[in-house]
Amino acid sequence: MSTVRRRILAALAACTALLTAPVFGQPQPVPTLAAAADLKFAVEEVATRFEKETGHKLRLVFGSSGSFYAQILQGAPFQMFMSADEDFVFKLHDAGKTLDRGRLYAVGRIGIKVPAGSPLKADGELKDLAAALKDGRLQKFAIANPDHAPYGMRAREALQRVGLWETIQPKLVYGENISQTAQFATSGSTQGGIIALSLALAPSVKALGDFALIPADWHQPLKQRMVLMKDAPPALRAFYDYLSTPPAQEVMKRYGFEMPRD
Predict the structure, then answer these.
(1) Of 54, 40, 61, the residue nearest 235 (C-alpha)
(2) pTM of the model
(3) Which of 9, 25, 103, 170 has its CA 20 to 30 A from that of 55?
(4) How does pLDDT run across 76-93, given as a tens digit for each residue?
């Protein structure tokens, strides 16, 4: 092999090494957590504590569990998923998308929220809601879309439990997720709605009207499960474990979540 050819090949090899080697000092993508909308205030607070204690940075995205499930199936770049319905986690695992079957992290609750000045009463047994349907006080009522939002599914079950589902449907306004539903229920654009206890306890929402819990046995339990994707980086693996620590669980309890029993 000629000296010139050897030099060319050596130069090409050096260029290839430079192109494929990691660029030290270049910022790495911030790991992304997809979380059910009912977790917005609680998980934001837990994540802030986690970042201060560990120095890790996380990107939090909130929305409908059903929508996130569909996006992850299509390859969305979420490395961790906190679902409001554990069935979505099980389905993702069956599809080969997750590290394992995840961990139950909380049980959620629903209740009726009415804004200040509403003709409705915050009645957890929904008796006043039934009366308002009959006497014309109810014009619009918000729930999360039961086609893909777990809190909407449970709201539908509660309304079915008291025989209101058929009559209330023409009055329903559907939120894309439970966070948007809470906005509808408190903005005055509806007379109220069924929202997550975790959102109702947030100071910014609590100040906007009255709230009453719906009995837990009126609907299937909101078993909320989290899971890591196979490509989850160390920061999210650490956060996954951090959520089971006493400081994190105290925050979750303050927002009305029941902690799973061992």
Answers:
(1) 54
(2) 0.86
(3) 103
(4) 999 999 999 999 999 999
